[in-house]
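Homework help board

Subject: predicted structure for assignment chain

Our instructor gave us this sequence and asked us to write out the predicted structure in token form, then describe one feature. I got the tokens but I'm not sure how to describe them. Can anyone check?
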Amino acid sequence: CSSNDKHHDMQQQPKCFFIHYTGKDSYAVLHVGSNIPNKLMFIMCYCLLSRSEHQQRSTGNKSICCSYCGKGCKSLSELKIHQRVHTGEKSYCCSDCGNVFSRSNSLKVHLRIHTGEKSHCCSDCGKRCKDSSELKIHQRVHTGEKPYHCSDCGKSFSTSQTLKLHQRTHTGEKPHSCDQCGKSFTQSSCLKSHQKIHTGEKPYSCAQCGNCFVTSSNLISHRRTHTGEKSYSCDQCGKSFGTSQNLTIHQRTHTGEKPYSCDQCGKSFTTSSHLTVHQRRHTGEKPYSCDQCGKSFVSSGPLAKHQRTHTGNKPYSCDECGKSYTTSRSLKAHERIHSGEKPYQCSQCEKSFTRLGSLKKHERIHTGEKPFQHTNTQEEKTYRCSHCEKTFSQSEDLKSHERIESVNP
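My token output:
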């Protein structure tokens, strides 16, 4: 037959024909896969297809498969980069911190941490982000897009990581444990903050008052007590807050939502911290102890208040008259004397009071309730001072007395 007929017959063959010598050629790998002798030097194809046609004809757009996981890649270079996932090879090293990466592009993005470069700008607010993926996530703040949905409760999130953390509230998973006390956490960042309780480390200091904090977020929140900044407002009552978290907690007073339930008594709470403190009433745990008298408390707040009975410290001062108080609640109640505000109103006679405790005492006039009435009159005074053994029938009276005792021992 003629050479043209021979050529036509070869083109009809399902596979290409090669002349093989010693060596190995990537063109052949693309064309016939891995079924090539180990040592080929020169490969001649008789099918008359171009290099790009060879690659397309083999198995479609992704002609090379990873021998580890079977993933298809478009080219040898793509395959080589992909296989670093399996081999652990990281050829690109940061000259600043020594971190290594498997891709040159990953190193490039990492270097922006050192240079501070943020090349991607948000068209809505002008905020700059270090890469396109960070910008995409940020823009969801403006669009309100929350593409990640919880299959248990239907709640939506803007990032897959936030969804993953949320799902642990359903599963109860707490994979991060403290090696000193065994307490577990849902996030590694929460564990790191907790461990500072054991070390006593408070690396974040306020430049205005010198108070130190375990986390930078706590410091930022604290600074707002000096500036008075409250950027987060409730759309139902207009009340403003220094943090978005406090706003979220406040909004539950309108919705009645109490997502944290005690598994022993069923009582529900608006915050996980309130639930934790409540659960200690069942266990009897009081992990916060006074280093001066040894008295223990279920949470850090009551301990801090108690310690002021020893130090006499009154950090909360009235702007009007300069009078100082040991707690912000006491200051707030005092400020109502100047403002005339009486937010606690009796439902029966509409008389108003500055303190909730005063309202409760007044309501007993209507109900006739006498909670401290006993056959033995000495038992009426159930609150005893630890300094002088004097007793009181109301806890508020005892607290007032103890403050006087601590200042004038």
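Reply (TA_rk): Your tokens look well-formed. For the description, you could write something like this. Residues 1-60, 373-380 have pLDDT under 50 and may be disordered. That's the kind of observation they're looking for.
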